[in-house]
Design a protein that fits this description.
Number of helices: 8
CATH superfamily of the largest domain: HAD superfamily/HAD-like
CATH architecture of the largest domain: 3-Layer(aba) Sandwich
Order of helices and strands: EEEHEHEHEHEHEEEHEHEHEE
Helix content: 25-40%
Shape: globular
Bound molecules: magnesium ion
Largest sheet: 6 strands, parallel
Number of strands: 14
Number of domains: 2
Structural class: alpha/beta
Strand order of the largest sheet: 5-4-1-12-13-14
CATH topology of the largest domain: Rossmann fold
Length: about 260
């Protein structure tokens, strides 16, 4: 079925790990795919951590990778800002998101007079920060949301409010909608991957646990999808294949 696939892209939260606990057979599956000549990449809507922090976390879970193999919605916000040549940006988000921007040469990401606003997930989001972001949103030239995920799975699969918990109040109070959502299900990250590695959509297989971000992004882009879900009630959604255990992927790729 996946004869044309050369690259498997894994979602992270809920697919390879939940909080700090690896999903069963995560490292085994990544290594097995690589042994069979498949390129493995990592793609997350999580903007809290820098790509370097995510690489370290994956390494702690025995999954080796380089920063270049990791794509996050925070990094996409950086690339989008560079592409649009935005210089005057306020970051409403985590320290990791600010660091990702600083690594790309954005020096002042804290000015209350900024003309552009980037919103990412921030577990310490406060009324004070909402007030700052709201003031900028009222007059902003660009509002960039990392994603609008409603929730994500944490330790023991408990669900936590996602980036939408930061984006929605800013949008609602300022009566504006973010101009762009750079993360999933926007297929920009897959476009970037195809451009970077000179691939066609039918060479990609996206593996994820959330229909409305992972699978929908794959469908928006026209690449293959594998819906990873241990809950059979959820398989009403369309996907090329369904897996309830990660190593099932290996059966599709034999050298
Ligand atoms: Mg996920």
């Amino acid at each position: 079925m996946f004869d044309s696939v050369t690259t498997v892209i894994f979602d992270l939260d809920g697919t390879l790990y939940c909080a700090d606990t690896p999903v069963q057979n995560a490292a085994y599956t990544v290594n097995q795919l690589r042994k069979n000549g498949i390129q493995v990449l990592f793609l997350t809507n999580n903007s809290v951590k820098t790509r370097a922090q995510i690489r370290n976390k994956l390494q702690n879970l025995e999954i080796q990778c380089s920063i270049d193999e990791i794509f996050t919605s925070g990094y996409m916000a950086v690339l989008y800002s560079l592409y649009k040549e935005l210089t005057d940006i306020y970051i409403c988000g985590s320290d990791g998101l600010k660091e990702e921007f600083q690594n790309a040469g954005f020096t002042n990401t804290n000015s209350k007079n900024a003309k552009n606003l980037v919103i990412g997930y921030d577990p310490s989001f406060s009324y004070k920060e909402l007030t700052n972001a709201f003031s900028i949103a009222l007059k902003a030239q660009h509002i960039i949301a990392c994603n609008k995920e409603r929730y994500f799975p944490g330790e023991n699969n408990k669900l936590f409010p996602g980036c939408a918990a930061m984006v929605a109040p800013i949008e609602y109070c300022s009566n504006r909608t973010a101009d762009i959502v750079v993360g999933k299900p926007n297929p920009q990250m897959l476009k970037l991957i195809c451009h970077k590695y000179n691939l066609k959509p039918n060479q990609l297989l996206m593996v994820g646990d959330t229909y409305e971000s992972d699978i929908l992004m794959a469908q928006n882009f026209g690449c293959y999808s594998a819906y990873f879900n241990t809950n059979p009630d959820k398989i009403k959604y369309p996907s090329d294949i369904y897996i309830n255990e990660l190593s099932q992927l290996c059966t599709y790729f034999h050298s």
